[in-house]
From TrEMBL:
Molecular functions (GO terms): homocysteine desulfhydrase activity; methionine gamma-lyase activity; pyridoxal phosphate binding
Family note: Belongs to the trans-sulfuration enzymes family.
Keyword Cell wall biogenesis/degradation: no
Domain of life: Bacteria
Species lineage: Bacteria, Bacillati, Bacillota, Bacilli, Bacillales
Protein name per UniProt: homocysteine desulfhydrase
GO annotation (BP), single: transsulfuration
Entry GO terms, CC: cytoplasm
Native source species: Salipaludibacillus neizhouensis
Amino acid sequence: MRFQTKNVHFQHKMDSTEVSKTKPIFQTSAFSFENFDDMEGFFEGKKNYLYSRMGNPNTDDLGKGVADLEGAEAGVATSSGLSAILAGILSVAKAGDHVVATQDLYGGTYQLLARELPDLGISVSFVNFESREEIEEAITENTVLLYSESVTNPLLRVEDLTGMVKIAASQNLKTMVDNTFATPYLIRPHEASVDIVVHSATKYIGGHSDVTAGVVTGNFDLMTKAQGKVSNLGSNLGPMDGWLACRGLKTLSLRMQKQCDNAQELAKALKENDMIKSVHYPTAVSQHGNGAIVTVDFTDELSVHEFSKRLEWIKIVPTLAGLETSITYPAGTSHRSMPKEMREKLGVTDSMIRISVGIEDAEDIIAVFKKALS
Ligand SMILES: *Cc1c(COP(=O)(O)O)cnc(C)c1O
């Protein structure tokens, strides 16, 4: 099957004793059994489900659906993108281990890696992943993992996954990549031999801004470990949220295609506008397009605050990937806790906004921005 067919039919390959056209919601905390022998069947691997914290058909569907599109053996759904990242990291790292991560990380991921992992005994170094030397210099004898994002936030740097895997392979390290911004429709990091891929399914996987969820994918061995972490730490996803994210996932390729096409047109229109100093929009990301996020830096003549009052139906939202076009202010939200010098070193300026392009008609999106800029 090609991507779009596989995308819309991912649930049809699942076991189907059900007759409902859509997958029913197993809104239950546990599963019941005929007798104790029947219950023993779970521990013998004859039954899939016992207790929803340890697995539920709706959350498993999400893990399997994303794994399938990523080209991974297995996937585990979790309560959020951050808990997926934690489960992925803990499936390869323990106290005493060291992680080398890119410095231009999503803000929440930075907090998890910089503040929480050290308390668990896992140390992290943040370096510029554009420099092979910096990565290699940061690796110590305790290093177990290289961590990056396929497309970074908010400057949309596209990671050299092959280069990253090469360094890891030469030092016997695992690799992990956050593929939230790209989605498997654009980039499939496992094809470059990345070991673990994570998603904030809150974003494009769910796609409708109505659920907080995460997914981690990889080989059977790593995902068995990740599932163990999720069960033991209690960071499982609820059945209803799993079902909602699956409903969103079915239209991933349609949404992404439209959003990428719109973003390409918007980026072009903004590049031609005198009020804009620079437009960050990557090229050659994939055969389908270059993503649906456009980041712009305003000239000194324009106040971002003034601009934000003139956006008509475009909402100001500190997230991304919804069906509706929205904007956010990285310096005031995702990168707020970062010292100004560090922000500037990364290139995140105070005159920068990040646009998450939706599925509206491109002409209407462009018209609102043009009017607000004028
Ligand atoms: C939102 C986001 C996360 C965190 O996901 P949550 O679902 O909010 O926990 C991680 N990485 C990236 C790139 C994100 O955009």
